Amino acid sequence: MKIIILSRDKSLYSTQRLVEAATERGHQVRVLDHLRCFMDITSDKPTIHYGDEEFESSDVDAVIPRIGASVTFYGTAVVRQFEMMGVYCVNESVALSRSRDKLRSLQLLSRKGIGLPTTTYAHYPHDIDSVIKEVGGAPLVIKLLEGTQGKGVVLAETKKAAESVIQAFMQIGANILVQEFVKEAGGMDIRCFVVDGKVVAAMQRKAPQGEFRSNLHQGGSANLIKITPQERQIAINSAKIMGLNVCGVDLIRSDRGPLVMEVNSSPGLQGIETSTGKNIAGMIIEFIEKNAKPHRNRTRGKG
Q: Across the strands, what pairs with 28?
């Protein structure tokens, strides 16, 4: 098979592992920087251009999107173009856009009854007191909608601090979520890695001393964990609601049961493979081998 990985950096662990896994199984692999792709969107025969190269539908069997949060808009446009060409995409453009919009994704999960931390969203500065009260008061968590890897996440330990941070974000026009701080989670969360509707691996991430964010990019540590049947089902359901074939579902354990924090459409492989010893990259390639057929995308570039 001819597989394209959309990634801005060939040297990233996740990109390298996917290339290795695909090559080991006899496939041809190319890594393309999606920001350097350009599209002919008016032709009756859609194509993708990369420098002097032109890719038609017959040149590609499958695409693995590894789209960074800061370039979601352009990256999903490239994925959509491949869908219009009839090329199979591991995660489709609509699912990528849905999961990257933190507000939309939480609304979709909530509508389907998935447990979430109490979360509020407001635009009007005079609603700050009500917003803080709604999430149970301080301490509370303030999140930028566009943040990723734990960046743009602030823990406000007092009501005064919360008011100051929320006012500052609102003043610069930033879109934020205000969320309850689940103290009993103890600075730990669980990353469930879902491939093809199954949780294939899970790890527990722990925040470093003095930090509340458990993201590995923020210095957190990870170890293998056995998840409960309820946690497994919640992760599977969350991936299905987002429409993602491959994703990371982040959960925390609370006094009222597992709560979903986020569904990540481009989860890193290093932490989960190192913690569990599992060949996750190989599982993703196996999924492609089973499912990649022309015009098999559900949305076919219509989203």
A: 2
At 102-128, the pLDDT tens digits run 899 999 999 999 999 999 998 877 789
- Residue range(s) defining the domain that contains residue 31: 2-91+286-291
Q: What is the mean pLDDT of residues 212-220?
A: 55
Local structure of 101: helix, strand or coil: coil
Rounded Cα distance between 30 and 59, Å, is 11
Give the closest residue to 212 by CA, choosing from 159, 157, 146: 157
Exposed / middle / buried, residue 255 (Cβ in 10 Å: 0-12, 13-18, 19+): exposed
Contacts for 45 with CB less than 8 Å, ≥ 6 apart? 56
Tokens 């692999």, residue located: 29
Residue 270 located in a structural domain: yes
Asked whether the predicted pLDDT for residue 194 surpasses 90, the reply is: yes
Would the pLDDT of 215 be above 60? Answer: no
Number of domains in the chain: 3
Whether residue 123 sits in one domain with residue 105: no
